Amino acid sequence: MTRPVDSGVILIARIALAVLFLWGGVMKLLGYAGFVGYLNSKGVPLVQVAAPVATAVEALGGLLLIVGFKIRPLALIMAVYTVATAVLGHDFWNVTDPALQRDMVIHFWKNIGIAGGFLLLFVTGAGRISIDGARSPRGGLNL
């Protein structure tokens, strides 16, 4: 980081990404049976494993984003997770209704864009306003 403002901008980016995942994780917990049913309807394999993993990735990942802990590996995990949810959950190529297909295309590419944000976070690290930043020597890498 060369400018003091960079860490503040990275913090805002982490929070913006975290809000989506925290909300999703909490909603999955509150409506767990419905979430499992949705995964079954999409033909997701090993729903008994996928449902708790998805819920944990979203809820815990969101919390870790906010506090800035282990951001580089977390960002890679979140990028892969977000692309996987795009492919499994927003499979517009299997939708025949034009209005629904349009919605699915938007959500698919939104997820791809979010994954891109996670890849940028992987490159930048958590910034100084984070647990990673507090644990690393000034100017060091936040791994």
UniProtKB/TrEMBL annotation:
It is a multi-pass membrane protein. It is found in: Cell membrane. Its main location: membrane. The chain crosses the membrane at residues 7-26, 46-67, 74-92, 112-131. It comes from the Bacteria. The keyword Methyltransferase does not apply. Belongs to the DoxX family. The gene is yphA_1. It comes from Paraburkholderia sediminicola. This is Inner membrane protein YphA. Keywords: Cell membrane, Membrane, Transmembrane, Transmembrane helix. One of its GO terms (cellular component) is plasma membrane.
